[in-house]
Specification:
596 residues; alpha/beta; Rossmann fold; ten-stranded mixed beta sheet; 14 helices; 26% helix; binds flavin-adenine dinucleotide; Rossmann-like_a/b/a_fold; ETF_a/b_N; Electron transfer flavoprotein small subunit
């Protein structure tokens, strides 16, 4: 009789959302107090593991790396039905970045030999979504990220992968590492005995001092900048909501982006361009160019846009117009359909051969899939979901690049620095306004042939584009957010308003959970954060959603049942009016604006 399979579920203990506190001395988030919970997305992974066990009888083993207090997360997993629990606990693990975390977890994977490793989509504190793919790269396993509907049979896992524009059906040969995109939290079903938690030290895990913790981390949080922003809110009754004024605020002209000419460039900053299924580029590809140009002068750097794998030939021209000084097309002689190992191989080969100073990729569904693997393969520091760059010591030969990263619901900005060159980062969509900076001239395009090495153990069965405009919503100037239960009438009018250029629709997690909107439009702590000029929330809104739009220029909630004090500090106005009435005003105003 073959030995039953094993599923390893990685869970992290995180601060209670909204309660996280940074230790100013260590620049780490405090995890030694009782204000912690099990990372909710990891419970979705545990639920999937328990469902696979119900089908296969495989053992479910929960693992966490963290301080002694993190044992509570393992007891939580045991109470919800995990069979075993392993705690990687040792002072030498402290201060680990994602690569050092992944190294510790990878050693446990080698020790346990699971058929499947499941992680959450990302954590609510670091939120980089890097650890899963980095574990996969370090143990040489295939991966799928942001998975739902996971099924296991005959040594193969089948699942749906959530992309920025829809869903794809994939299969992957086991063993594999899979990050779970969304799901439910399994209930407590039993008591847990603390003595059932096995502990492992760095020594017992093997590896040297340069593998783990701060010493094994190619990145570090350089400082903590507090930026709690209180909004002095006003409350309007039915009147006081002026749709035309709102449109004016949303579409106020933004300063043109100046052409940047670097006289004697001595470095290169690369940006990764991401073609979208059905044509065009993920808008975050152009934002990455704007981000690179924001520091090109200080760094005396050329901006190079990299197209992984051969792409339609008009894309270099779009990249050149948006600021690429050169376009590098990595030709791997394969069809342009996205595959993790293809893009990881192409980028890793090119970066290793040419050593740019920095590489910026989109924090998109694809970017979260390949960028961590590239960083793990090359042992480079990767800052996930950053929003801006700064240069320190620009006039020296070794300037520091600071990757600014919002944390703890954007109450804090944590500049991250990498010891490695190049350093890598994934840019949060919606962080930069994109503008064409050139309207003439021809791009300087270079083709480089690269080979895809890894066996391809992942197979795309079907690729569905369901929300083609999904990636564009992060760049919208006016975003309308749908709360749950608005009714089809209001949603129809909102869709008509959102059909106007520069306006986009998003949905709260509660509306997505009620299947009133596709997951690609979700904003909130378990989804994305956005920073439009104006956020207009319609209907019931929760604090998590409002924290996800905290960086917006103006935040207004229209909800007849809302009261100002429940959203104090997070909104500029609460309009207690009928949602459809406000939407019709807006529809009139947008059609008026379009006609003028
Ligand atoms: P993610 O990569 O988002 O986690 C994905 C999944 O991996 C989780 O859902 C969980 O299933 C699993 N997982 C993650 N951590 C553990 C764990 N300790 N034990 C078991 N399973 C786990 N490090 C970087 O390399 N780059 C950064 O940009 C970066 N930014 C940071 C910003 C802040 C504000 C803070 C506090 C830390 C940052 N770190 C960064 C450090 C990073 O948070 C830690 O390394 C953390 O252990 C893993 O990163 P994450 O929280 O982003 O996890």
């Amino acid at each position: 009789m073959s030995t039953p399979g094993r599923i390893l579920v990685c869970l992290k203990q995180v601060p209670v959302p909204g309660r996280g506190v940074f230790d100013e001395r260590t620049k780490r988030i405090r995890r030694d107090d009782d204000q912690t919970v099990t990372n909710p997305p990891d419970l979705h992974a545990l639920a999937q593991a328990l469902a696979v066990r119900a089908e296969t009888g495989w053992e479910v083993v929960a693992v966490t790396m963290g301080p002694p207090a993190a044992a509570e997360t393992l007891l939580d997993a045991l109470r919800r039905g995990a069979d075993r629990a392993v705690h990687l606990v040792d002072r030498r693990f402290a201060g680990a970045d994602t690569l050092a975390t992944a190294r510790a977890l990878a050693r446990l994977v080698a020790r346990e030999g699971p058929d499947l490793v499941l992680t959450g989509r990302w954590t609510l504190d670091g939120g980089t979504a890097q650890v899963g793919p980095q574990v996969a790269e370090l143990v040489g396993l295939p991966q799928l990220t942001q998975v739902t509907n996971l099924r296991v049979g005959d040594g193969v896992l089948s699942a749906d992968v959530e992309t920025d524009v829809g869903r794809e059906a994939w299969t992957v040969a086991l063993p594999a590492v899979v990050s779970v995109g969304r799901g439910a939290e399994p209930p407590w079903v039993t008591e847990a005995d603390p003595s059932a938690v096995e502990t492992l030290t760095a020594e017992e895990l093997g590896g040297g001092p340069r593998d783990f913790g701060t010493r094994g981390s190619p990145t570090f949080v350089a400082e903590i900048r507090h930026q709690a922003r209180e909004r002095s809110a006003a409350e309007y009754g039915g009147v006081g909501f002026d749709a035309a004024e709102l449109l004016e605020a949303a579409f106020a002209p933004v300063a043109p982006v100046a052409e940047v000419v670097v006289p004697t460039p001595s470095r290169e900053i690369w940006t990764v361009a991401e073609p979208l299924p059905g044509g065009g580029l993920h808008p975050a590809s152009l934002e990455a160019l704007a981000c690179a140009r924001s520091v090109a002068c200080d760094l005396r750097a050329t901006v190079v846009a990299v197209l992984p794998c051969d792409q339609p030939h008009d894309l270099p021209r779009v990249l050149y117009a948006h600021g690429a000084d050169r376009v590098l097309v990595l030709r791997c002689g394969e069809p342009a359909e996205y595959r993790t190992n293809l893009v990881t191989d192409a980028l890793s080969t090119a970066i290793a051969a040419r050593s740019p100073f920095a590489v910026i990729a989109p924090f998109s569904a694809r970017g979260r899939d390949y960028a961590p693997r590239v960083a793990a393969r090359l042992g480079l520091g990767l800052t996930g979901d950053f929003t801006a760059l700064e240069v320190r010591d620009a006039d020296t030969d070794e300037p520091d690049l600071l990757w600014l990263k919002p944390a703890l619901s954007a109450d804090v900005i944590a500049p991250v620095i990498a010891h490695s060159t190049p350093s890598l980062g994934t840019l949060r969509p919606g962080s930069f306004t994109t503008r064409a900076v050139r309207d003439q001239g021809e791009p300087d395009v270079e083709f480089a042939d690269v080979t895809a090495t890894g066996d391809d153990l992942c197979t795309a069965v079907e690729r569905r584009v369901e929300v083609p405009d999904g990636p564009r919503l992060a760049a919208a100037r006016l975003v309308i957010g749908l709360g749950p239960g608005l009714g089809t009438g209001a949603r129809r009018v909102a869709e008509r308003v959102a059909a106007t250029r520069g306006i986009a629709l998003v949905a709260t997690s509660a509306a997505v959970a009620a299947e009133e909107a596709p997951p690609q439009l979700e904003i909130g702590p378990l989804a994305r954060s956005i920073a439009p000029a104006v956020y207009l929330g319609l209907g019931r809104h929760d604090l998590g959603t409002l924290k996800a739009v905290k960086a917006a220029g103006r935040v207004i909630v229209v909800d007849p049942d809302a009261s100002l004090d429940e959203f104090a500090g997070l909104v500029d106005a609460v309009v207690s009016a009928n949602v459809e009435g406000v939407l019709l005003d807006l529809l009139l105003a947008t059609s008026g604006a379009a006609a003028s």
